[in-house]
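ESCALATION

Customer reports they have been waiting on this structure for their group meeting. Please prioritize. Original submission:
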Amino acid sequence: MTENFEENIGFLINDVARFLRVSYDRKMATIGLTRSQWLVLSYLYFNEGINQSEFALILDIEKAPLSRLLYRMEMKGFINRKSEGEDRRIKNIYLSDSIKPFIISMRDKAAIYRKESFSILDVKEQKNLRDLLQKLKKDLSTKALDNIK
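Update from on-call: job pushed to the front of the queue and completed.
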């Protein structure tokens, strides 16, 4: 079987994700956020209170660079880090009250962008794509975690 670049599913997934990121980066740059910042804020919107170690795993970022990014975001007033348990070294991350209205606006823009980006697909195709990607993500993440153990 001869491999065809245009039909390689890995390249296709990567290219689609890259086009989505680049376009969304441009939209978010108009409101003054870097990709790393909007990614952190978006993930925190759904995972508020997560600790830094778990957050590093979700974002696939080493702990030290994530800590520096979070520090800068804390200095800007975007997030708060709190030690809540007995181990004061473990920090949980929260969105600041002042950033929450901004996040809602950002999420609204993201929803419009997703709708525009996927408008070529009908509702059933979008659901099928989402279901297949979730299935792949679950399987691949399970395998990745198994390899860590």
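Sent to customer with the following note: Strands lie at 79-83, 91-95.
Escalation resolved.
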